[in-house]
Structures are given as C-alpha cells and as structure tokens.
Amino acid sequence: MISLKKIAAFSIFIIINFTFLIKYLSRITDHYIILSVILCLIPPLPYFFRKYFQKFAANTVLYLTTLILYCTIMAIVFALLPVESLKVDRWSVITSFWDTFLSGDYAYSAKSVDGNYPGPMPFYFILALPFFLVGELGYFSLSSVLILAIIFRLKSADDTSRIWLITLLLSPLCLYDIAVRSNIILNSAIILLTIIYTASLLSRLTIKPRSVWLIGLLIGLSLSTRSVFVITYISLFVYSLKSKKIKLSQTLTIGLITVFFFALTFVPFVVGHFKEFWHMNPFIIQSDVLIPFELSLAIIVISFLAGLVSRTQNDVFFFSGVMLFAAGVTHFLYKSYMENWNAAFFNSRADIAYLLFCVPFLIYFLSQETTVGKRQKLILKQIQILQEADL
Fold first, then answer.
1. pLDDT score of 387
2. What value does the mean pLDDT take over residues 190-205?
C-alpha cells in the first residue's frame, strides 16, 4: 500500500523536475510544455518497472560500471560546456571568493561575474578549495555521486535502493545541477550523510562524551555550508528528545560545541577584516538573497513541529525534505511578490535551484520506505509459510 507520504515525496520530486524543464526548455523550443510533460515521465520508470530493472540493480559490476560511465560522461560535458558559457554563476562565486582571499582582501566582499556576493558559509568554500586549485569545479559537483552512493550503500544495500539512486542521478534536475556546477545536490547530500550518521549515534543506548563532541563537530562544519539546513537538525533533535534517545543536557552540550566549531570556520576569513565582516557577511547576504529573517523564523518554528509529529526516524527525513522544499517555494513566492511571477521564474530573479535542497532527503526517504515495505512482505510471507507448516 502506497502511503500519502510516499505520494507527497514523489510528487515533489516530479514537480521540481517539471519546473526545471519548463524554465530551461522554454529557451530553446515553443513546445516546452508538452516536451516537459513527456520528459517528466522518464524519472519514475525505474521504480514503476523495477521488476525489469531488478536484474540490472542486482548486478554489482553492472551497477558500478553505470556509475563510472555516468561520471565519465559528465566529465566530457564539463569539457564541452565551459563555465564561461553558463548563466549560473555558482562556479564564479567560489572562484571570486578564493581569488579575493588569496589576494589578501576580505573574501565576502568578492563579486561573481554576475555581481553576486558569496552567500554560502565558510566551510562550503573550504570543501571547494581542492577543486578550485585543480581548475575544474565541475568535479566538486560530480562528487555528489560518490556521497550519494555511500549514503544508499550504508543504510540499504538492496536492489531497490540502487534503483532509487539511479532514478535520482538520471533525473533532469540532477543532470542540470551537475552540468552547470551548481553544487546544490552535493551540499544537501553532505548534510544528509551527516544527519544519518548523527541519527545512528543517537540511536545507541548510551551516548559517549566522545560521540557528543563528534556530533557537535559534524553539525558545526555542515552548518557552515548553508544555514538553511539548521531546520533538518532541529527536526532530528526534537524527535530524538521526544523519543528519549538523547537527554536535554546532552542536546545543549552538542549545541554549544556546534556553535564553537561553526564560529571557528569563520576565523581565517574574518581575522584582519572585522570591520568589513559587520557590514558584509553570509548572514546578511542570505537574508537578502533567500528569504527575509521573519519568514526564515517561521520555517524554523515549523521544523520544531515537524520533529514533534515524526513517529519514526524516517519521518524526520521526510519532514526535513518537505521543510527544505517549503523554504525554496517561500523564496520563489517572496521574489514573485517583490517583482512579478514572470521576472521571478523566467528572468531568474528567483533561484529555483533552491528547490533542489530537498531532493536527496525525499529520495532517501522513499528508498527506506520501499526497503521497509519489502522486508515486511518477506516477514509476512515467512509467517504464512510457518502457519501452513503447522497446519
């Protein structure tokens, strides 16, 4: 039986794909609506015809070969699609950030080729540094394939989980994100991996002091990519407190450690530039670019409620995805209100790439729900066999 949460998660996934297709196909054809509808039918195929994809997913060699081939093709795309030809300037945000810092100036005063200030937090740029030095930030985006493969392998190594991963990688939104060096899927995948690991530590009977420091470190560094992900941690810890998996004192300790390591990531970029920092920093930039502080606060409050209504750990991933989707939609509606819908959507006054933050969370939720359902069927079948044997 398909639950409403499954339907909602998959519907959001399809809606985001449709949104991207409508926007970018409208630039090359007048038949973009019907073409978008047709292409939106492709991502669900591996799941709805999973009986036929099962043999492919069960073959580890074929599965790994597919991932390698995928990465090879995307590497060729990077060579054929130089960053200078892109209208998406996230590559330039990273490049200008490090160029400015290495020249001795204040990094957050840098401007991209489109005149945008660097919005992400410091650790995001630290992660991108090796790829900046190599000279191809596309590989930074492409590393999301490795992170996602690790995520799906850690929690579920069955065939269905592999099918969900291929479904995500072959979706228009993921192909777009990697091809234009957007890094949104990568950023979200890193947060998801951190939350999965944190949740596994919280599920233990006793949480050691070493684990408390490790959790604080991981959350502090991961939040130093984009602050919007704080809503996912709020939902996780509210759920964990409600489920008595962690004590309030431990939660407060983790919070303090998180703040310490989060603040520590700013030190290399703020020392010698304290005056500039108070006038221009990622908090100011993100409040201007994403959504106003008041709306951000409302989403944070709702994330507390999401943690309270979560009945299972997998619910946390679902509601985190929904909250991130809500943040992206709120950004679009706010920009539409401030300007107009056409300017916000077709003229890119709103950044629809923010909708991608939710995708890894929702696909992971779907993979886990499918795996659980599969296990339940196997258990029921075994019970039925035992009952028939007794008869």
1. 41
2. 89
Output the pLDDT for position 116: 87
Listed range (104-108, 157-161, 252-256) with the worst mean pLDDT: 157-161
Report the C-alpha gap between 235 and 218 in whole angstroms.
Answer: 16
Instruction: Determine the average pLDDT of the residues in 98-115.
Output: 93
Q: What is the pLDDT of residue 389?
A: 46
Give the Cα separation of 66 and 9 in Å (integer): 26
pTM comes to 0.91
Give the DSSP H or E segment for 145.
helix 138-155
| Distance (Å) of CA 86 to CA 32, 60, 117, 180 | 20, 36, 17, 7
Element (H, E) at 104: none
Residue 57 corresponds to which tokens in the numbers above? 């997913």
Task: With CA atoms as reference, report the closest residue to 307 among 213, 164, 195.
Answer: 195
Report the alpha-carbon distance of residue 138 to residue 24 in Å, rounded. 20
SS3 state at 339: coil
Mean pLDDT within 19-27 = 93
**Separation between Cα atoms, residue 344 and residue 216, nearest integer Å:** 38
| Cβ neighbours of 62 (radius 10 Å) | 11
Nearest partner of 318 among 275, 271, 372, judged by Cα: 372
CA angle, residues 234, 240, 244, in degrees to nearest 5? 145
User: For position 377, what pLDDT does the model report?
Assistant: 47
**Res 379: pLDDT:** 37
CA distance 33 to 288: 32
CB–CB of 180/86 below 8 Å? Answer: yes
* Phi, psi values for residue 281, rounded to 5°: -150, 165
**What span, in angstroms and rounded, lies between the C-alpha atoms of 46 and 43?**
7
Q: Which long-range contacts (CB under 8 A, 24 or more apart) does 49-52 make?
A: 50/160, 50/163
